[in-house]
Amino acid sequence: MPVINGLDLLKALTDPPMVIITTAYPDFALQGFQLDVLDYLLKPITFERFFKAVNKARDYHTLQSHAATSSSVSKTEDYFFVKCTNKFQRIYFNDILYIQGMQNYVTIFTTKGKYMTHLTLKAVEDNLRAKDFIRVHKSYIVAVSRIEAVENNELIIQSAKIPVSRNYRDAMMAVVVGSRLWKK
């Protein structure tokens, strides 16, 4: 590629596809894996090694498809699974404190820890039970039952202060405080 190399292209993509790098240069393997490539094949590539990488991609795609299918069904369940690093983590709705979105990643803060996964906040929001969770900011969804206080334009959940944007404030106050008590 004359202007940009493959790794720079991968960095620039907002929603990168599954990638298997094939190259004659072993120096970029670490950088490739930091960009979540599935495999890194050094030339000359044997058929067995190529076949192994393709099977890994197929297995990963199957897991992703299964997770997407099961997450849409999970609205009636009390948990869902998300892929975190190299494993699928079960997250119970009752354990969620709040969820923070950062472009194509979300961090789910729970009573047991925090979990970062490659999803959009909208995708997570679509699979949450609407009666238990509320969007309070373009980057935050909170568990209604975990809100301890509302202070100015922030919610307090344990030791965290979650910003509340103007666009979501009235709806949030109606749910949290109740429409009879909330006065602007």
Question: Which keywords apply here?
Answer:
single chain, 184 residues, Rossmann fold, OB fold (Dihydrolipoamide Acetyltransferase, E2P), 2 domains, 5-stranded antiparallel sheet, 31% helix
What does this structure look like?
With 184 residues, this protein is an alpha+beta fold. The chain folds into 2 domains: 6-68, Response regulator (Rossmann fold); 77-176, Beta Barrel (OB fold (Dihydrolipoamide Acetyltransferase, E2P)). Helix content is 31%, strand content 32%. The chain is built from 5 helices and 12 strands. It has helices at residues 6-12, 29-34, 47-73, 121-126, 166-176, and strands at residues 20-23, 39-42, 79-84, 87-92, 96-102, 105-110, 113-117, 133-137, 140-143, 149-151, 154-157, 160-163. The strands form 4 sheets. Strands 7-6-5-9-8 form a 5-stranded antiparallel β-sheet. Strands 10-11-12 form a 3-stranded antiparallel β-sheet, with no helix packed on it. A hairpin with a 2-residue loop joins strand 6 (105-110) and strand 7 (113-117). The longest helix is centred in the first third of the chain and has 27 residues, at 47-73. The N and C termini lie far apart (58 Å).
